[in-house]
Amino acid sequence: MGGITRIISARATAKTFTSVSQTKNSLDQTDETTSEYSEDMWLFDPEERTTSEVAGERVRGDLGGLIIAEGDGSGNYEEPVERNDRIVHGGVEYEVDTIVGVPDDEEPNYWTISFIRRQ
User: Fold this and answer.
1) Are 59 and 105 in contact (CB under 8 A)?
2) What residue spans define the domains of the chain?
3) What is the DSSP string of the chain?
4) Is cis: bond before 108, omega within 30 of 0?
5) Strands 13-24 and 30-53, bridge-based pairing
6) What radius of gyration, in Å, describes the C-alpha atoms of the chain?
7) Quick count: other Cβ atoms within 10 Å of Cβ 46?
8) What CA–CA distance (Å, rounded) separates 20 from 83?
9) Is residue 66 within 8 Å of residue 111, measured between CB atoms?
10) Is CATH 2.40.10 correct for 2-117?
11) What is the full per-residue pLDDT of the chain (119 aa) written as tens digits?
12) What is the pTM (predicted TM-score) of this model?
């Protein structure tokens, strides 16, 4: 695992994420508030494909990312990003889909994050 984490550290750069919170107001409309934060991450393997839909074609895509896990010193590891957080890469906006710790979520050496392209 040490070799993998060294590679991730060498290729990671600071990326800006947007965290989105949604609330319903008194008129039952959805209000969004956003905040930004930064994480060192290695993004890789952007992929796009066109799919046929009832109303025409739609571009779909995904992206992968790796982040070194950092604990708080007492064995607690917190996921560095949250599901539905957003990032722009190559002019395309992606949304966090899954977050998995490697080798496990309890004591990960690194996190693997998959993103899906926002429409």
Assistant:
1) no
2) 2-117
3) -HHHHHHHHHH-EEEEEEEEEEEE-TTS-EEEEEEEEEEEEEEEEEEEEEEEETTEEEEEEEEEEEEE--B-SSS-B--SS-TT-EEEETTEEEEEEEEEEES-SSS-SEEEEEEEE--
4) no
5) antiparallel
6) 17
7) 15
8) 10
9) yes
10) yes
11) 778 889 999 999 999 999 988 888 888 888 888 999 999 999 998 777 676 667 766 666 889 999 998 877 677 888 889 999 999 998 889 999 999 999 888 889 999 999 999 87
12) 0.80
The token duo for 54 is 């009832």
- Amino acid letter, 25: N
- The rounded distance, in Å, linking the Cα atoms of 21 and 104 is 28
8: amino acid identity, one letter: I
**Placement of tokens 């779909």 in the chain:** 60
Whose structure tokens read 């993103």? 115
Nearest by Cα to 68 from 23, 108, 25: 108
Strands 13-24 and 92-102 turn out to be unpaired
